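Take the subject:
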Amino acid sequence: MTTLEIIDVVTKLLGLISIIFAGIALWQSSRYARRQWNLDAFTYYTEKYERIMSSFPKNAYMYRFEIDKQIQSNEEIRLAALRYLNLTSEEYYLWKDHYISNDVWKIWKPEIIRTLQTPLFVREWQTLRHEFKSYPAFSQFVDRIQAETTLIFNR
């Protein structure tokens, strides 16, 4: 091999190595950005959840899991439930369309299920379900979770 051929091979190898390093750097940067977005989304939705849950009348929030202490529905309760359902539909959309990771969804999902299965939300969903006609996948998600509720509360 001549010196010129060796220089040509070395140049091509260096070019290939730099492309590989650029690809790795891009992949790591993308991974970091996605993790940061998931953290930001988690923080934002946690704060939003706290505001929504604080908007429930105290007695309604405290008794939401108790069948024998049904709180009468009123506009304040229904609006708080609607805010929660809107939040949940946003979170469900973000997970379903892969904007948030499965790890974040695994944190949110048990509490979503637990809340949607409460007597209060089972009752309010019957009135509010029409608000989600434009998002049938979410309506089916709630219906599926609440169908399991009858199994839990009818034991």
